[in-house]
Structures are given as structure tokens and as C-alpha cells.
Predict the 3D structure of the following.
Amino acid sequence: EAGVAQSPRYKIIEKRQSVAFWCNPISGHATLYWYQQILGQGPKLLIQFQNNGVVDDSQLPKDRFSAERLKGVDSTLKIQPAKLEDSAVYLCASSRGNSGSGYEQYFGPGTRLTVT
Amino acid sequence: AQTVTQSQPEMSVQEAETVTLSCTYDTSENNYYLFWYKQPPSRQMILVIRQEAYKQQNATENRFSVNFQKAAKSFSLKISDSQLGDTAMYFCAFINAGNNRKLIWGLGTSLAVNP
């Protein structure tokens, strides 16, 4: 079974530029998550999708961040314009759904973003 | 409030020895799932072990086992026969059962296994 795929793995941009990250979840996983992880901290949930609908985006800075999950599969996360404090690892995760082992989240390798 | 507390920011252990990472959590619900995740330096977050709150038996995965004390809301991870590859950040997390719930994370414990 293929894992969660993310690209790019690394990205360096200047502040005020825009950037986009892509995620392909494990096949059949209905729920997709985007997390922001600052160095030395735990993951912070930015947005959670159930199929192609948004379940939770309460911590997404909507003035600059946007995300979509077209057709309930792949997802993109965009930042425009980027700020220095956006430097972090952006993790994508997926899970089957809401019961038993379906709560287990599987993570991609992450995208390390550096804003200069 | 739903919280996870990992009281040990850093720990170290000698190779082949046993180490226990502590975790306490708070939830008012009765049906939930607990997890330990491992994140090696600059590498992917992976699931180590899962425990269902309705199960009294402690989960075990090879060298990894948990001590789940539901009344005390405690969920510690024991690593036996520590290996150099166990060096990583370890995160404790839980999720309440039900639709559209989110994982509540601890701040992590950085474990160093020394040769």
C-alpha cells in the first residue's frame, strides 16, 4: 500500500511570495489533514477534510492560507503572501474514517518551508 | 478542556536498556483512542502504538508497550531493549470517538538512545 505522498519536500521563498504544497493521501482514506509543525513543537492542525468537505479550519489563517481537496482525493495548501513566521514543516496526513483503526492517521514526509 | 501533557521534554537511555515516557490526558468523554507517534530527526511521523479506551488490556507492539490507566488518565510508553534507531521525538495523542473529531497532541518528548 502506497503511503501519503507530498511535494515538494523542500521550498525556500522570500516573504510576500506565494507557495503551494500538494498531498496525495492513501487510497481509500476519506479524511485528510494539513498540519503545521514549528521546529521543536508538536503538529498544529490547520485544516481537516472529510472527503471534499471541510470539517475543521478553525486554526487556518484564512487571510493568507487556503486549501482545497478536489474530488475528495488530492489536496493543495497555498500560502499567499508568505510571512517569516510561516517557516515550518507542513505535514499532510490521512485516515480511513471514524471508527476503530480508522482513527489512525498516517503521515507524509512533509514539506519543509523556509521563508527568508 | 481536552489536553495532553508530556511532562518529560527530554530523556536519554543507554542502548539495550528500558525507558518509560509518561503521558497524561484530559477528556470528559468515555470512548476515545490513544496513540504514540514517533518522529525521528528530519524524518516522517509514524504511528508506534494504539490503545482503545474501552480495552483493559494494554497494547503491545514488539518492543513497545503501554501502561494505560483509564481512571488516572495516564498512558505511558515503555520501550524495551532500546536501539539507536529509537532516537526520536515521541508524541502522545488522543481522539474522542465520533464524527469529525480531531487529534489532541502533547508537546512531545525528545528521546536520545546512547551507545
Notes: Chain A has a mean pLDDT of 93. Chain A touches chain B through 22 residues (CB under 8 Å).
